[in-house]
Amino acid sequence: MKIFKFNIIGIFVILGITLGCESYLEEEVRGIIDPSTFYQSDEEAVLAVNGIYLNLRQNGFYGNWQGIHTFTQLGADVLESSRQFGGNEPMQNYTLTQSNYSNARQLWQLIYRMIGDANSVITNIENSPNISAAVKDQSIGEALYLRSYGYYHLSNLWGDVPYYDEEIPIADAASLGRTPVNEIRSNLISDLTRIETENLLPETYGESDLGRPTVWAAKILLAKIYLWQEDWVNAREECLEIINNSPHQLLPNYGDVFDVNNPFNDEIIWAIDFQKDVPGNAQDRTDGFNPRLRDEPRNPADRGPLSEALAARNEEFNGYGLTVPILSFINEFPVNDLRRPHNILGEYLGYELTFQYMAKFTNFDFVNSPRGNHGEATLVFRLADVYLMLAEAENELNGPDNAYQYINAVRERAYDPVQPYNGLSQAELRSAIQTERKWELAGEGHRRYDLIRWGILLETVKNAEFRTYDPGSNIQPHHIRLPIPEEEIVLNPALLDSDPTNNGYGN
After folding, report:
1. Which of 33, 55, 228, 324 could form a disulfide with 38 if both were Cys (CB 3.0 to 4.6 A apart)?
2. Tell me: the pLDDT tens digits for 202-237?
3. Phi, psi (deg, nearest 5) at residue 105
């Protein structure tokens, strides 16, 4: 997908602004371009849609580790910071307050900016007579999906949040109170269902558009919302349709799913593409998982030989090395599970490392993936997740008998010989699915949401073993939600109208 590259260049050319103008990136596209004159052709409609994606690649969202990953990955039982790091400490250590919340405010603002951009696109493209039906449908479909994806994260992280689905003045949007989370999710279900019933998104894309959401991306997001609602029937239906009718399939080898040279393989349902050497479009998320030479190897005497061995392969341990598996994840991951080497890297080129790293997200190639200029796609949704969601929904509806096939399909490539589940009670299989999701989807942005959805975040964190912080001693029941940032409350006091405690942080 060349979305970000085309959008940045295309919009700047239209506006007559150079790529070096950083101030433009702080503005909202709809605030600069009059929609009545901008949405007048298919090309302009596509550029407008592409503008929505700009929010995803910002540093506070997916552009670096200190964005959405901080709030979906840290503070669970898979990953932690390798050292004391102020930016992640409140979330990692559960010392969150209204005024101490990592980068939550930046994420809040970026998501609402994306929602506002999507509302503008939907309103103005729907009302334009100059856009072809095909482009109009896909443009609206993409905007509906991205808006839903934004509200998905807002509702999971904050619960009740302001909701609006039409283009309104920024001042009006900035004075809205909070909408109940179940009402928001019902609206998302309607929007995502509309994508399918009106055929707004295609099933596949050509090479130049890989990374845009398909109808299958809409369906997996819809299935996830149904799981939050404990609507097992509809969750099962969406998952079955993806497995039975989509072009996606499980790869025979787990490690191949994360091949940086094939980021849109058959298992990937949606990934966010980045482009190396495109201004403002590269990302450094990979740096968060890469070892640093100042930390490695464990034996300082091996540092020179390791550096030479790396250089011979055009490689460096040049990342931040900030994010590593927690101790209990390392100790409990089954040693005979073929997924373990892809999730836990304890040595490289024969040298023992100081820390263990998440191997499936490392990239040591400093030529094609230099520090701070990574072009790797960021994985969001894949088919193995669907199989495990289907196993969960089926087990909750009817017990284990028909659910085994779905969890065992994922385990089949994880063990040699295969070790299928059988003979479990419903409660035992429920626990097995929860554990299987941890091993299969580690570091992919689902774990903390899963633990909150299952109602077991507190007990899980309290029983996990960390090396840097002690979140188990600090975590409280209200930590299943983030506090609305104090600066946002000052700007919009209505955010406290329905909940003066601010999700329990204002007591």
Report:
1. 33
2. 999 999 899 999 999 999 999 999 999 999 999 999
3. -65, -40
